[in-house]
Design goal:
By secondary structure, the chain is of the alpha/beta class. It is built from 18 helices and 16 strands. The protein has helices at 13-24, 36-45, 62-69, 87-95, 108-133, 146-158, 175-184, 203-211, 228-231, 247-259, 285-290, 296-302, 319-333, 343-350, 357-371, 420-434, 439-446, 450-459; strands at 5-9, 29-33, 50-54, 56-57, 60-61, 77-82, 100-103, 165-168, 193-197, 212-213, 225-226, 236-240, 261-263, 270-272, 276-281, 305-308. The strands form five sheets. It has a five-stranded parallel sheet with strand order 2-1-3-6-7, sandwiched between helices. α1 links the parallel β1 and β2 (29-33). The longest helix is centred in the first third of the chain and has 26 residues, at 108-133.
Length: 464
């Protein structure tokens, strides 16, 4: 992101020396050459962030070098220098891929402006690449329950500050959405918002993900890479599921929070950043500290302003609004009219405790959209969450003479206990019947992949 390595290509010694002194004065690494051939040797051996190249060189035109570098995925930003400036030549250089154009003689302040522009441009490009890889859910925080009202008040109080926020809650409650609301209402709302899912990155790669790496730092590090903290400079970073990082990395993260500085993997240059930190966790970090799985000093650094996101079972007043919102969004993606949520369907949703919280509700709504014709009423049976203790009306239980007792280790029938294998077998058959034998719909109803369903059918000898 920051400009670090610069190459200057000019056959005039005075120009090379002048640029070298100014660039080195800003602690930049500088390579000097006087011909295109010499420059190509440098570029083949090393990567550069910025290039100053003269138009007229002993072995060719500087714009020829632009054309040769154009197909490369990794190439420096190129500033063309000339002593014969015209509007036409400037336009031609920009069309050829130049980042900027400068006329000799130039001042130190002009070079400063170019360096700032290059820094900002590189950061914008890298951030757009990161965001293009992420599915950023722009949905607002939905609900009018008392619990959500209190949550909104906490967000409004902390968002305008620079305080570090620790967002706690069960899986699927919407912790990332709360972090997004804090960012949107903060003074940094127009600056970068970078997210890192700590649980989704392997332990061997997460340090590079946080802090970046230098070329050659490890096998496969063919280019320099900026880390998420560097990309988030002057903005906000979200450390999602912070409890999943190792104790070794926790120590390095603590330094960033305290000193606002770090080094890339394989590097020795200290990089300073101005970043606001938001973190989420589904664990009780106080207990993790007691069991020595999480550093106490890092916990205190993160826990400046804790926010607890309520589970869905404690905000059931929001169920209808949430469900209808999911139905509309999911149907809109396929261009269909959303199905209708009836009072009977809503009653089914209200009787369930939702251990998977809002994320589970979203999955159930998606299944309902798939199984219901556009614009038609949702059948309650398509909303029943797929948990054995909830199944009270299946065809293998032909009106038992005694009530089903699901409190013990199995589902108790009048005369015998159904084994888990038999329960699984019959339930899969029931789902297949409901889906008219369609395996894709069956897998969606069961909340599993087609591959898992196929393996289960073979395992239970139901392949035919």
């Amino acid at each position: 992101m920051a400009i670090e390595k610069v190459i200057v290509i000019d056959d005039e010694p005075i120009i090379r020396r002048s640029l070298e002194l100014q660039l080195r004065g800003k602690r930049l690494s500088v390579a000097l050459c006087s011909t295109i051939a010499e420059a190509e040797k440098y570029i083949a051996k090393d990567s550069f962030d910025l290039m100053f190249v003269d138009v007229r060189l002993p072995d060719g035109d500087g714009t020829d070098l632009l054309n040769r570098l154009a197909p490369r995925a990794e190439k420096p930003l190129i500033v063309v220098m000339t002593g014969y400036g015209t509007i036409e030549s400037a336009v031609n250089c920009i069309r050829s891929g130049a980042f900027d154009y400068i006329i000799k003689p130039f001042s130190a302040s002009q070079i400063d402006v170019i360096l700032r522009k290059a820094d900002n441009f590189n950061q914008a490009v890298r951030i757009s690449q990161i965001l293009a890889q992420e599915s950023l859910d722009a949905a607002p925080l939905v609900g009018e329950s008392r619990a959500i009202g209190q949550l909104r008040q906490m967000i409004q109080k902390v968002a305008p500050t620079e305080a570090t926020v620790l967002i706690c809650g069960e899986n699927g409650t919407g912790k990332e959405l709360v972090a997004t609301e804090i960012f949107r209402s903060s003074a940094r709302a127009q600056s970068p918002f970078i997210k890192v899912n700590c649980a989704a990155i392997s332990e061997t790669l997460i340090e590079s993900e946080f802090f970046g790496h230098e070329r050659g730092a490890f096998t496969g590090a063919t280019e320099k890479r900026e880390g998420r903290f560097e990309l988030a400079n002057n903005g906000t970073i979200l450390l999602d599921e912070i409890s999943e990082i190792s104790l070794k990395l926790q120590a390095k993260l603590l330094r960033v929070l305290q000193e606002r500085e770090f080094e890339r993997v394989g590097g020795n240059r200290t990089i300073k950043v101005n970043v606001r930190v938001l973190a989420t966790t589904n664990r009780d970090l106080q207990k993790s500290v007691e069991s020595q799985e999480f550093r106490q000093d890092l916990y205190y650094r993160l826990n400046v302003f804790p926010i607890v996101v309520p589970p869905l079972r404690k905000r059931k007043d929001d169920l209808e609004e949430l469900a209808k919102g999911f139905l509309s969004r999911i149907a809109r993606r396929s261009g269909a009219q959303p199905p209708v949520l009836t009072p009977a369907s809503l009653e089914v949703l209200q009787t369930y405790d939702w251990p998977g919280n809002v994320r589970e509700l979203q999955n159930v709504m998606e299944r309902a959209v798939i199984l219901t014709e556009p614009g038609q009423e949702i059948t309650p049976q398509f909303l029943e969450p797929m948990f054995p203790t909830q199944l009270l009306d299946h065809p293998w239980k032909e009106e038992p003479s005694e009530p089903v007792d699901a409190r013990n280790s199995g589902i108790v029938f009048p005369d015998h206990i159904v084994s888990l294998e038999e329960l699984e077998r019959e339930y899969i058959l029931h789902a297949l019947r409901k889906a008219n034998g369609n395996r894709t719909h069956t897998a969606q109803m069961l909340g599993i992949s087609i591959r898992t369903l196929r393996n289960k059918l073979n395992e239970l000898k139901l392949g035919a």
